[in-house]
User: Fold these one by one.
Assistant:
Number 1:
Amino acid sequence: MNNFDVVIIGGGTAGLMLARELGNFKRKTLVLDRKDNLLEFSFNTLGSFINVDDFDLSKDVIAQKISDLVFQSKRVKREIPTNNLFVLDKKKVHEELIEAIDNQYVTIKTNIHIKTILKDTLGNFTSIKDKNNVEYFGNIIVDASGTNGVISKNVGLREKKVQLATGVEYNVEYLGDPNKMYLLSGKDYQGGYGWIFPLKNKRAIIGFGTFNDAVVKKLKPQLNKVLELPLIKKLVKKDNDNVEGGSIPITPVLEKFVIKNLVCVGDSVSQVNPIVGEGYKFIFEAAIMASKAINKSLEKDNIEFLNEYELEWKNRFSENYKRSKKAQEKVFKYTNNDFVMDFALLSMRIRSNERIIRSVSGEYGLENK
């Protein structure tokens, strides 16, 4: 029978972390994902200010530890030492999450395309149907479907059409310091920014992302132009034409994630921190918060306890996200101007390294602790 305590739509970052935690609570959980392979990604690496121990992940998920974060505009460079910045291997992160899931309680089904969600006369969500009209029943339904927002868009928690920041990247030979990560800004990045994430074995990821729809249509040619810049040629050497790409939503900071017995986690409700699109650490935390509220709701047989997830998220993240959103808007507004970005980096010299790292990591609230 397709009856579960919890049905999760999406087997990505949020869905797998939530499933792992619900398995630990011994909750009968079903994870449905539209992909055939949960270990195929549009991007294979990401930069994150994360302590992997906090999320019961091993050091094997770290592709490279970063000692310095380098901000580079047209003519100005600012290097900030850091001890909590890492490049993560997404495949290994997800492999570890899948391996840690208790299969006695959690079932994962792939190649499932969700068609609709059904309600009872009281407005509670009872089940979801896939494109083959197979019905899956859950006491609690979770949308963890990422930017698709399979359910969150339909119930009004997220706009059906949202602005996206889209990026492309290459895995290239790296000529620079393997412990330095670069964030690149200026006119060459056409209203977005670039990045260089070092990997092991003298490799690196170089990418370029923007929210400008006109530029999105020619991202790969523009990234190829970036690779010809003298500064970039000193750091990387393109030796293949295999491009990766993906998008994250550019939306207002959301604080509503629960309707009745429907819970939304991750990109389905835009839980990526706006400042640099850092997602994993924040989405992991949100998934753990949601798991506790879901478990308590099932334990008490009262869906009102699901609102504790919203409250905990708001207390932990809301003010930081609002500040990050303002910073994001400034980046989008001014990064297309070399003079302004040069000036911005020069003005950073009056701020301490610690304060800059807290701002970039989205952890503003720590400044006053």
Number 2:
Amino acid sequence: MDWQLSAADALHTLLRQPRLGLVTDVDGTISPVVGDPFAAQVTPRARELLAALKAHLALVAVISGRSVADVRERVGVPGLVAIGNHGLEIWDRDGARLAPEVDAYRPAIQAAHRALRPVILDGMVIQDKSITLSVHYRNAADPDAVESTFGSIVQAIAGENGLDFFRGRRVFELRPPIAIDKGTAFRRLVEDYALSGAVYLGDDVTDVHALRAARDLRASGACYALAVGVESDETPASVRDASDILLPGVPGVEEFLAWLLSAVSASST
């Protein structure tokens, strides 16, 4: 547990916070990355630990680029707060809600989907999440070539339809041009649940906004938040740069969750 030694002071301060929350990404964090995005599964150990932490923390939540319905079903922990489509959808104690600005962009998402279908290459998959699109290319014959050449095609289609374009790990994303992301979603959770301490865990470029938000919240004194990055062979440099702590893959996340559960269980006895 090198991370526990290197961040001992920060972790000790975190545990002293009276209202502590945990917010985690899904794919690549509590679910191993697989070639088929529809086959991804949260590990049984991560699911078990998240369920147990619910009894000890003021908030346990997941944030994902997946749709909120997909997130809830895939994580499979009743009562968890779920945020989907990078913050555009939320499912919490008040039920399901969608950012009101999103509806106006549904026709643009549909038009972009129609434009993408005839040009994608073998092995590429379009994931239609109703209010956003993801184009996965991990299983293409040459993913590196797709990244360097096909991205401009997807970006052009996004621009033609008034959508924003993003790159992730072996994925292109098209989203409505709305100032909502995982960082704004994380900040909203901290505020809505009056958290004095919080952890954000994530592994990809889409998590960087939330990792940076955690550090900004801590620096401002608004909440003692820690940015916890998850490493793999494909970890973007921006994730490493934005993280206070780095965990070795999904097993490292499970180790961290187990440590946190042990620590907060001990403090409540």
Number 3:
Amino acid sequence: FPANGPTAQAIFDVTGYFTSDMSGATYHALTPARILGPTTLSNHGTLTVQVTGNGGVPAGAVAVTGSLTVTAQTSLGWMYIGPTALANPGTSMITFQASGGASSGVTVGLSGTGSMGITAVFPANGPTAQAIFDVTGYFS
């Protein structure tokens, strides 16, 4: 490793929590299934993905686990994923460089209609990136 001295900044976005009582949802593992991708998004471009009814996720699921992958990006940036698509999200689930892919395991709450939203954010207009989502389980 190089000598002491270099620094880095860390960012941590809270996107949910678990409780210790037995009143919460139950997790069900699934065989991984691709339910999105690759789909191209531009700066502040949003996408709504219907999750229930796809990849083995039944109606009534309240959240899913999976892998969000970014590929074919033309700039550095980040993506938000949550119950609804937000044009100007204040948090990110994955950040990525201008080249190479990036992937992150995520747990995402679903909207009342069983969908989730994805938003791409770049430092300027013009760049694009492709989003892929593989579901691995759900909460009911």
